């Protein structure tokens, strides 16, 4: 999946490769959409947004949320969390 749809340009950019059938002939066209890789991972961003001095249980819930979000946004469908597994994730168990 990854190799079919993404190309790492090295450094901080990547291309998403979009392939579509065009017009009546149905020939395939390819568009490349460049985007910048994030400098922080999801866990770091969530922790950065958690107010300093938060209670330990709030920090743990933020970490559970980051884990759930990472699993939902997994690029590979085979590795991505299923909807049922997501509903059973510890993040929801603690609500």
UniProtKB/TrEMBL annotation:
Query: What are the protein's UniProt keywords?
Result: Ribonucleoprotein, Transferase
Annotated Gene Ontology cellular components are: ribonucleoprotein complex
Gene Ontology molecular-function annotations: protein serine/threonine kinase activity
| Keyword Ribonucleoprotein found | yes
What EC number(s) has UniProt assigned to this enzyme?
A: 2.7.11.1
| Signal sequence residues | none
Output the SUPFAM superfamilies linked to this UniProt entry: Protein kinase-like (PK-like)
User: Protein name, please?
Assistant: U4/U6 small nuclear ribonucleoprotein prp4
- The source organism is Coemansia guatemalensis
């Amino acid at each position: 999946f990854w190799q079919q749809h993404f190309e790492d340009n090295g450094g901080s950019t990547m291309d998403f490769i979009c392939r579509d059938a065009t017009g009546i002939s149905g020939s395939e066209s390819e568009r490349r959409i460049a985007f910048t890789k994030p400098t922080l991972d999801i866990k770091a961003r969530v922790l950065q947004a958690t107010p300093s001095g938060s209670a330990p249980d709030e920090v743990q819930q933020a970490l559970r949320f980051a884990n759930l979000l990472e699993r939902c946004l997994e690029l590979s469908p085979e590795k991505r969390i299923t909807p049922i597994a997501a509903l059973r994730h510890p993040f929801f168990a603690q609500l």
